[in-house]
Amino acid sequence: MNDDRRRNTILELGRIREPLHATGFGLGALLAGVHLWLGTETGLTTFYVVGAVYVAGLAVYLTTYWRPVGYLVAIVHTLALGVVWLLGGRAFFDVGVATGVLALSFVVVSGYLFAADSGLTAAAHGP
What we know:
The longest helix has 25 residues, at 93-117. This protein has helices at 3-7, 19-42, 45-61, 69-87, 93-117, 122-125.
């Protein structure tokens, strides 16, 4: 692909080829899937909205509009959902616990990717 054509596209798929980025993307996709599935099981619009927010975040992640602050937004969103679940009576306990494990993994990976993409890790500074 020539440089002119590359500049005219908003897709940025190179990141997804790196293992840790692919892991974060996969965890985000799983979180979206769980919430959309819960929406179909319960009929609650809230689950559809949460799933759609994850899908929208994943879509932005695949574009040139993505910035490291997006990781922080994803972390805050995910942690806020955990707090809502804990304070809301822990409905759907088994699914909630499994989703919590996914969510914590997502938060850890996103935190590392934020640090790496922002140049805050030792690996980013080189030897």
